[in-house]
Structure formats: structure tokens, C-alpha cells
Design a protein that fits this description.
This protein is mainly beta. It has one domain. 3% of the residues lie in helices and 28% in strands.
């Protein structure tokens, strides 16, 4: 999906992480419709922590298999670890997360009814933050020296005015408006996008990808309502092809010379794609592995040279 930018007067720089959150992490929302497909009573919130992304160790990898992990997990290993991205890296003080909360109509949860903004319900609120995002060893535009703050898009406007913290999201939130799909991507540098294991990307215009797989009651075609589907019409259950759902993140450089940029997102599914969450259609949304992608050698997010520098995981002490 491609998003345009607009001026906001803030000092934020663009960051767009490719989380396999899609775009929307394991979420399902139970609405009024009676489902004929399997749907749990609920699946929210989804909170994903981020770790550095290293290349797989295989018989054909570089470096090759040349070591053995310690027991009891005494499996073949490759020395030394090689990051997937040479453009971007997580610094030594980095911490990051992506959080998705399903907000049904009628909810009283404060997170779904934030002060200072309008969030029509139902919707899925998406927040994310990662700190100490640095330039890697591979030079790219606006990221010439390793260890510098990662902030490739220095020419565009920014949406966020207050950075996140790695445990809290940036502010202000970007809620649905007529132009929110461009507002929320203003100043974006990284992309969050999930990857479903074994997913097949079938050409579907800007939605081509393997981030999410939707099984719901909002479909039309043979044996059901004529197309296009009517959000107020009869139920027709189906599973969609796997599609993309990129989430833009904005980066703010720090004044410290020892830590990198702080990057984040604070938005909703309907702000990014108006009408993505429909009431009463009982949808199970399968989310792939959440990833955060850099902007590649061309410093443009969403192009084919972007690499996932951070993925969901845990860190053992």
C-alpha cells in the first residue's frame, strides 16, 4: 500500500517498520453476526516484542554451518550471526513493541476512548514504539555513518510531535478522518508488516502481500449476494487471499550521541484503510510474524529493497 504525506509542523522524521502486524497481530472480534466458520469468543490485545533479525543458519548460508549450540539444544550453528539488514540496526539500549487492541462498539475501555481524539467504533487501535534505532554498516542516503540516528526521510513532514519510549507509543494519535490514510504516514521512515509462514502473495493491486488472512462474513459472489459486498447486507462467509497491511512508523532523532532514533506509530486500522473494520461481520484475522523493515538503499519505504531488521521475539538474559 502506498501512502502520501502532508505537512504537520512537527519535528518528527519518518519511520515505517515492517512488522509482520501487518499489519494487525492475532486479533479476532466477535460481532453480532452468527458465524459458520470457527471464531473464538475473542482475541485481544496482541502485544509483540521486537528483537534483531538475523539470517537463517542453513547448509548453504554464509557463514556456513561451522559450530554447535550448547546442550541440551546441541544443534548445528553458524558463527558469527549476520543481520538481515545492513542499513538499520537495533542499538544496545533498544527496546520495542507493537500492540493491537480490538475496540468493539459500546466498549468502555479507556484505551479505545482516548481523550483528545475521535475514534469511531468498531476499530482496531495500533500502537508501536522502538528506541535506539541506528544506522547499520551499509551506507544509504541520510544514513552515511554506522551508529548515527536512523532517519532516512528528512524532507517530508511528520505527524507525531512527542516520541514514544519503547514501552509507550508516540503522540498524538492519528484517528480516522477523510485524509487519515495520508496523515498517518506523514514523515514515515519504516514499515510494520506481518509475514504469514507459507503465505502466497496473489496480485491484488496495492494489497499484494502476506500480512493478514481474513475469514469473515463480509463477502459476495457465487452462491451469495451480488458484488460488491454490502456492509449492512446478509452474511456470506469466506476466507480472503493473503494481503498486505503496512503500518507506517515515524522516527525522531535524539540529542544523545550514544543512542539512536525513537520511532513509533499510534493509529487505527480504519485510519490507515477506511472501512477495513466492519461491524457485525464476525471476522477472524490471522496475523503473520510481525516485522519492522528499513527503507533500503534508496531510503524509500515500501520498495523492493527494504529488509526486516527487527522481528517479534523475546530476549533471554
Amino acid at each position: 500500500m502506498t501512502y502520501s504525506s502532508r505537512k504537520s509542523g512537527s519535528s518528527w522524521r519518518r519511520a515505517l517498520f515492517a512488522l509482520a502486524l501487518t499489519s494487525l497481530g492475532a486479533m479476532a472480534f466477535a460481532q453480532a453476526a452468527s458465524a459458520t466458520h470457527q471464531v473464538p469468543i475473542g482475541a485481544s490485545p496482541a502485544r509483540i516484542s521486537m528483537v534483531p533479525n538475523y539470517q537463517a543458519c542453513t547448509g548453504s548460508s554464509t557463514p556456513p554451518i561451522n559450530a554447535t549450540h550448547g546442550p541440551p539444544l546441541a544443534v548445528p550453528a553458524c558463527h558469527s550471526p549476520v543481520p538481515v539488514s545492513g542499513i538499520t540496526k537495533m542499538g544496545g539500549s533498544s527496546i520495542g513493541f507493537t500492540r493491537i487492541v480490538v475496540c468493539p462498539a459500546g466498549t468502555t475501555a479507556a484505551f479505545c476512548l482516548p481523550a483528545g481524539g475521535v475514534m469511531p467504533l468498531p476499530d482496531d487501535r495500533i500502537t508501536a514504539s522502538i528506541v535506539d534505532v541506528q544506522c547499520g554498516p551499509t551506507a544509504s542516503p541520510n544514513c552515511a555513518a554506522p551508529g548515527n540516528d536512523y532517519n532516512p526521510n528528512t524532507s517530508g513532514p511528520d505527524w507525531y510531535t512527542t516520541p514514544g519510549s519503547g514501552t509507550a507509543a508516540p503522540l498524538p494519535a492519528c484517528f480516522p478522518t477523510l485524509s487519515s490514510s495520508s496523515d498517518c504516514a506523514a514523515g514515515a521512515d519504516l514499515t510494520i508488516t506481518p509475514q504469514i509462514p507459507g503465505g502466497i502473495a496473489i496480485p491484488a493491486g496495492a494489497l499484494t502481500g502476506t500480512a493478514i488472512r481474513i475469514s469473515d462474513h463480509y463477502n459476495c459472489g457465487t452462491g451469495g449476494p451480488t458484488c460488491p459486498a454490502d456492509p449492512t447486507g446478509p452474511d456470506f462467509d469466506a476466507t480472503s487471499i493473503d494481503i498486505a497491511f503496512p503500518i507506517p512508523m515515524d522516527c525522531l532523532p535524539t540529542v544523545s550521541t550514544s543512542t539512536g532514533s525513537t520511532c513509533g506509530a499510534n493509529t487505527t486500522a480504519n485510519a490507515l484503510v477506511p472501512g477495513a473494520v466492519v461491524p457485525g461481520k464476525k471476522a477472524d484475522v490471522q496475523i503473520g510474524q510481525v516485522q519492522i523493515t528499513d527503507s533500503g538503499l534508496d531510503a524509500l519505504r515500501g520498495t523492493s529493497d527494504d529488509k526486516a531488521f527487527a522481528v517479534q521475539g523475546i530476549v533471554n538474559p
